[in-house]
Automatic annotation (TrEMBL):
<keyword id="KW-0812">Transmembrane</keyword>
<keyword id="KW-1133">Transmembrane helix</keyword>
<protein>
    <recommendedName>
        <fullName>SHOCT domain-containing protein</fullName>
    </recommendedName>
</protein>
<feature type="transmembrane region" description="Helical">
    <location>
        <begin position="15"/>
        <end position="39"/>
    </location>
</feature>
<keyword id="KW-0472">Membrane</keyword>
């Protein structure tokens, strides 16, 4: 009679299987979390543009802020805006 050798599942018991399953689930969970956070960060930065404070505001933006704060009146705002737009290097200049 020939006896078969059972290798006892490569020496793994129920705790080994549980640990293997748990570590696989943690690995996949970590991977999915990293991907989701990376996509959210990429979409947030694409939506908001460059970080605040990274680029200095344009002259028109500064003028608009002064007008919004009440430092200058509408007449002064429009006069200064016209002067800014008449510059030869302004994109809206004719």
């Amino acid at each position: 009679m020939i006896t078969m050798m059972w290798w006892d599942h490569s020496g793994m018991n129920s705790w080994s299987y549980a640990l293997m399953i748990l570590s696989a689930l943690l690995l996949w969970g970590l991977l999915v979390t990293v991907i989701v956070l990376a996509v959210r960060q990429a979409s947030r930065s694409a939506r908001t543009g460059p970080a605040a404070g990274s680029a200095s505001p344009t002259a028109e933006e500064l003028l608009a802020q002064r007008f919004a704060r009440g430092e200058i009146d509408a007449e002064q705002y429009h006069a200064d805006l016209r002067i800014l737009r008449e510059r030869h290097d302004h994109p809206l200049a004719t």
